[in-house]
Write a structure and sequence with these properties.
Elements: H1 19-27, H2 34-40, H3 53-64, E1 83-91, E2 97-99, E3 103-107, H4 123-128, E4 131-137, E5 148-154, H5 159-177, E6 192-196, E7 204-207, E8 211-214, E9 216-220, H6 222-229, H7 234-237, E10 240-241, H8 251-260, H9 267-273, H10 287-301, E11 314-315, H11 316-321, E12 324-330, E13 340-344, H12 347-351, H13 360-365, E14 369-375, E15 384-391, H14 395-413, E16 429-433, E17 441-443, E18 449-451, E19 453-457, H15 459-470
Parallel strand pairs: 1-4, 10-11, 12-14
Antiparallel strand pairs: 1-2, 3-9, 4-5, 6-9, 7-8, 13-19, 14-15, 16-19, 17-18
Length: about 475
């Protein structure tokens, strides 16, 4: 039998047959960098993995676990069924840790990855079933070999999440076998994604139906991982509900069915249905934002597994899937005044985003969206709820936004803050101010202060999306 290791089993620093031994060996990395540990072993290396997560993963397996570089479909440590994965954590100014990127599990072969009845029969499940995850603290400009290890342990997936992995796998398979691999985006699934993994947009492979498509890989979404690893005090956890499905329907079908019961009702009618005093809500300047968020919580809480009828602030599946809720109000004459904004651009962070698919903008636009559509009806401060729908931006339009991101990044580097693309110059998005007033500024890479601006999705683009859903 061919050995998977660079040395005899009895010379390894762990017992590959013993799960606890493997985990213990991994945890010796905690509070140290890979370089530090290798130096302690008098192992001199000149390996570098500054901007290459794939290279670092291979070096971790080779230099620390003595595993040969291979592309086998089996787990890295076959004897105990353990797959080794590493990732970087970002630390915010509030000391909050989040995943820097999605977690790649395995590459997709459009010829063979879907020749199975379901996820659990496929090689992917062997990789997912028992993941030893090793997390390192990202530091800008620092080689990954010098990143400090912050966590090492087996991933524990809740049963309901594993069931969602299976549904996500089925969704991807359905697109591939129906000759629609070109329609795959990260937004079509919840927790398990098929993200692009090629060198660039020209790195294409064959797919069923005679298609040439981007290389892709199975990955766990960063939004899912962030939620899985987030510690929430009990008082906060109590405000997060779990949605249940209706009569065997999917979660999205169940949500839309519940929301559709209120279509055609005014905001005041919906609030009255839940015994909420609508008049007490409409005096605030941002009344519509407050009212729409409250209505969202009230209706979705009816689908909660909890029977107390207490409205929840958030919902577990939405958080894990990174679903973004957007509320849109059409004017009385059926027009749309507002474009759709995203958070303020941090100019210094933008210029250090080397990978489009790890950028803030990509994360924002590649998500699944739940749109609530209202219409102003002439009655002051009492719009009518028209409809709700789930939506994902197409790959073609995501590619258009990639061009906008590149253009914006280049202009920031060139100190051209007044030359960003407008809504008339780009078919999908644009850059414009997103500040409270002229004094609301943010620092630039040049050390100057500039007015806060954001990426926006064009008004016409959003209007066209809505019209396709309500006609």
């Amino acid at each position: 039998m061919k050995s998977n290791y660079l040395k005899p089993l009895n010379e390894l620093d762990y017992n590959p047959y013993d799960e606890a031994s493997v985990i213990c060996h991994a945890q010796r990395l905690i509070r140290k960098s890979l370089n530090e540990v290798l130096e302690e072993k008098n192992f001199i290396t000149d390996h570098h993995a500054k901007n290459n997560k794939g290279a670092f993963g291979l070096l971790l397996e080779e230099l620390y676990f003595s595993i040969k570089n291979n592309s086998d479909s089996e787990p890295d440590i076959i004897e105990s069924g353990i797959e080794i994965k590493s990732a970087q954590l970002l630390i915010s100014s509030e000391n909050k840790k989040t995943f820097k990127e999605r977690l790649k599990i395995s590459s997709i072969s459009f010829d063979s990855s879907f020749n199975y009845e379901n996820l659990f029969d496929s090689p992917l499940w062997k990789k997912l079933e028992k993941i030893l995850l090793i997390l390192f603290l990202y530091k800008q400009g620092e080689d990954r070999m010098d990143n400090i290890c912050d966590f090492a342990g087996l991933l524990k997936f809740p049963d309901e999440d594993i069931a969602q992995f299976a549904r996500d796998w089925d969704t991807i398979k359905k697109l591939v076998v129906n000759n629609k691999a070109n329609e795959i985006t990260e937004g079509v699934t919840y927790y398990l994604s098929a993200n692009t993994s090629g060198k660039d947009s020209n790195d294409l492979v064959d797919a069923p139906g005679g298609l040439r498509v981007k290389r892709r890989a199975f990955s766990l979404k960063s939004a899912y991982l962030n939620e899985l690893f987030t510690y929430r005090p009990p008082i906060i956890k109590a405000k997060i509900g779990k949605l249940k499905t209706i009569d065997g329907k999917s979660l999205e079908e169940s949500v839309i069915e519940e929301l559709s019961k209120f279509e055609g009702n005014s905001c005041s009618d919906i609030c009255n249905h839940f015994n909420i005093n609508y008049q007490s809500l409409i005096n605030a300047k941002d009344y519509f934002s407050r009212v729409s968020k409250l209505i969202n919580k009230l209706i979705l809480s009816k689908l909660s597994e909890d029977s107390s009828n207490i409205p929840f602030e958030e919902f577990d599946q939405f958080n894990k899937a990174g679903i973004t809720i957007k509320t849109v109000a059409l004017e009385k004459n059926n027009t749309l005044k507002e474009a759709m904004s995203f958070p303020t651009i941090k100019w210094v962070e933008l210029v250090h985003e080397d990978d489009w698919e790890e950028s803030k903008l990509y994360d924002n636009i590649s998500r699944r969206f739940l749109f609530y559509v209202y219409k102003k009806n002439g009655l002051e401060k009492n719009p009518t709820f028209l409809t709700a729908f789930f939506w994902t931006m197409s790959q073609d339009d995501i590619n258009q936004m990639h061009e906008l991101w590149l253009d914006t990044k280049n202009k920031v580097l060139e100190n051209k803050y007044d030359e960003f693309l407008s809504s008339t110059q780009h078919p999908v998005g644009h850059i414009r101010p997103h500040a409270r007033d002229a004094s609301d500024l943010i620092i630039t890479p040049q050390g100057t202060m500039q007015k806060k601006k954001s990426f926006w999705i064009n008004r016409k683009y959003i209007y066209d999306v809505i019209q396709k859903k309500i006609k």
